[in-house]
Design a protein that fits this description.
heterodimer, A: alpha/beta, Rossmann fold, seven-stranded mixed sheet, four-stranded antiparallel sheet, 11 strands, globular, B: alpha+beta, 2 domains, six-stranded mixed barrel, two-stranded antiparallel ribbon, 15 helices, about 25% strand
């Protein structure tokens, strides 16, 4: 059964295409006796180029939804299509390839590989894609420039500030030229100034490259900049508003 | 650390066992028996003096012309009665070529009082315990009573004690006497006949090689040439057993090391579960994660193997030089062992580290598969 969804209808741009489509997605945790409903029949579509924020109180299912969209977890029921492909039918290897080529992740805790330099962290995903060394080096420098970290590529994560590490994480997410970037509380560990600076970088990337961003967040700064807000409460979409 | 120490323990254990076996084999083959013995067929069954090589010339020529042979010693062997003025005892009488024995046995080295045989007709060497039983000392008279070959007629000859020996094991010191070969041949009226030819090789492994052309040539319808493994089967069985014991010790050590590896790898995976979650989230395939963990295990194995081998080399060199004292004298297969000098060979430092490396990799497969199956969303939440 679908939940009632309050949606502010907007005129759809005819050139826009759906990159994310969830249909009646449910995710339950625990046993039958002690079942926790994390997501309850969530259906939504996100179009290419949207700068979407999934918001809601803690435990509302934001991160779970983001993980399901990113193929990091499997729904208990329902389907998720990314760029027209149903990820539930993919094998582990196919899903890994799909994530590598179509999805970029930015996590709250940056999650850079500590033993690799900033350049190597960005380069790693291109290595998985089988891109030649020359092209990798060139693109790494482009990505570092894009996030304002020129000259810092040789530094290890421990030698970078939190904001700089998150910029590296953004560059890593961008490096594979994904269709969608999923960001889980990307500014939660950053101070206000650094958070705003990072958001401006991501907004510029969104506007310049028409890249789709989906955030899970409590951060008002993100909400202000988002072109669409999806409100979750108790695992269901409470409100979906486009600005 | 566990892998290194297991490898060190295995190399040292194998070195000690190898040293012990070498000591035992050396004790058997170098003391008196030789590495190969030639007899008339059937002689070893009950030491029948009538079963002797009447014309050993062909065998001696073959041995003389074989460069692999380092020495050989012709012998006459018979049981007899040894009598002094005060007492009598039964003994196994060896008639030996004093000069040739120097290159085959350790009779000369075992002399503790008096002198080794010089070729004199009436010289006799007794073990100290036998001399005590007979209540004789250097220069005293001894009468040997035996039976002539063929006729079985009683033969007696007078000898004077020229030397007292002590090999260690009682079965040598209480029951063997040595006289010169010519005297023995004369006593038994066997002309140039021989009961035994003991042979030593430059490479002891030749004695085990039944396909060695020399051994095939020496073996005739009348004469059998046996390697020490054949005429001392109990030691062969013991060596076989020590090989199994090394295998068992190695298996136990490696099993413990494997459990250590699995535990270490799981600890490492759990410590980095978030990192692995991230790697999977950004597109690493399950096989990439497996390869990552196996590469880490390989690195761990190689470093551990090198450290373990180096530690074994250090400790092994020390023990090989200084030996390992057993505290009390240990008699094994007629050989008295008081000090073991472990023996180390190149293969221990090549094969065992390779086994350790392969085993570590095998032990890492399970943790690697576990890591490859980590669900990214769970990994990312677990450590947050």
């Amino acid at each position: 059964m679908s939940n009632a969804v309050e949606t502010d209808r907007v005129e759809h741009d005819p050139v826009r295409t759906n990159v994310i489509e969830t249909r009646e997605v449910c995710r339950y945790f625990g046993t039958e006796e002690m079942q926790v409903i994390a997501l309850d029949h969530v259906s939504l579509t996100i179009e290419k180029g949207e700068f979407t924020a999934i918001i809601g109180p803690s435990g509302s299912g934001k991160t779970t939804l983001l993980h399901l969209i990113g193929g990091l977890d499997n729904p208990s029921s329902g389907t998720i299509e990314l760029s027209g492909e149903n990820i539930a039918t993919m094998s582990g290897t196919q899903l890994a390839d799909f994530r590598r080529d179509h999805i970029g992740f930015i996590f709250q805790a940056y999650n850079l590989i500590p033993v690799l330099s900033a350049e190597e962290n960005i380069e790693y995903i291109m290595l998985l894609q089988g891109i030649s060394a020359d092209r990798r080096k060139k693109r790494v420098q482009e990505m570092l420039a894009m996030v304002g970290l020129e000259g810092m590529g040789a530094r290890r994560p421990a030698q970078l500030s939190g904001g700089q590490q998150q910029r590296v994480a953004v560059a890593r997410a961008m490096a594979s030229h994904p269709d969608i970037i999923l960001a889980d509380e990307p500014t939660a560990n950053l101070d206000t100034k650094t958070g705003i600076s990072l958001l401006d970088v991501m907004r510029d990337l969104n506007e310049q490259h028409n890249m789709t961003f989906v955030f899970s967040t409590h951060d008002e700064k993100i909400m202000e900049r988002a072109t669409r807000l999806i409100h979750l409460r108790d695992g269901a979409v409470e409100k979906d508003e486009r600005k | 650390m566990l892998i290194s120490l297991s490898l060190t323990a295995l190399i040292l254990t194998d070195g000690i066992i190898l040293g012990m076996v070498e000591l035992m084999v050396g004790g058997i083959t170098k003391t008196i028996a030789g590495e190969v013995q030639l007899h008339k067929r059937g002689f070893l069954d009950n030491f029948d003096p009538d079963l002797f090589m009447e014309s050993p010339g062909r065998s001696l020529q073959l041995l003389d012309s074989e460069p692999a042979v380092s020495g050989y010693a012709p012998r006459v062997i018979t049981g007899g009665m040894i009598a002094s003025t005060y007492n009598t005892a039964g003994a196994l009488i060896y008639g030996v070529d004093a000069e040739r024995e120097l290159g085959v046995s350790k009779i000369s080295d075992a002399i503790v009082t008096g002198a080794y045989l010089s070729g004199g007709e009436r010289e006799i060497l007794l073990g100290i315990p036998l001399a005590e039983i007979l209540e004789v000392t250097l220069g005293d008279r001894i009468v040997i009573t035996g039976a002539e070959v063929g006729t079985g007629e009683i033969a007696q000859e007078l000898f004077r004690v020229t030397g007292l020996f002590e090999f260690g094991p009682d079965e040598y010191d209480e029951h063997l006497v040595f006289i010169n070969l010519s005297a023995a041949q004369k006593l038994l009226a066997m002309n140039n006949g021989l009961h035994e030819i003991a042979v030593q090789f430059h490479d002891p492994e030749d004695a085990k090689n039944t396909r060695l052309p020399l051994l095939q040539q020496l073996n005739t319808d009348d004469i059998e040439a046996l390697g020490w493994l054949n005429f001392n089967a109990s030691v062969g069985a013991m060596i076989e057993m020590t090989n199994y014991s090394t295998l068992i010790i190695g298996t136990v050590l490696f099993l413990l090391a494997s459990l250590g590896v699995i535990n270490s790898m799981f600890m490492s995976i759990y410590e980095r579960i978030y990192e692995i979650g991230v790697l999977k989230a950004i597109g690493s395939k399950p096989n990439d994660i497996i390869m990552l963990i196996l590469c880490e295990a390989l690195l761990l194995a190689v470093i551990s193997a090198v450290l373990g081998a180096l530690l074994a080399l250090g400790l092994g060199s020390y023990f090989a030089e200084h030996g390992i004292a057993l505290g009390e004298e240990l008699e094994m297969e007629g050989v008295n062992i008081t000090n073991i000098h472990p023996r180390f060979i190149v293969s221990q430092f090549v094969a065992f580290p390779i086994y350790v490396t392969l085993l570590t990799l095998a032990a890492a497969i399970y943790p690697a598969r576990f890591a490859s199956r980590i669900i990214p969303s769970e990994a990312l939440q677990r450590s947050l």
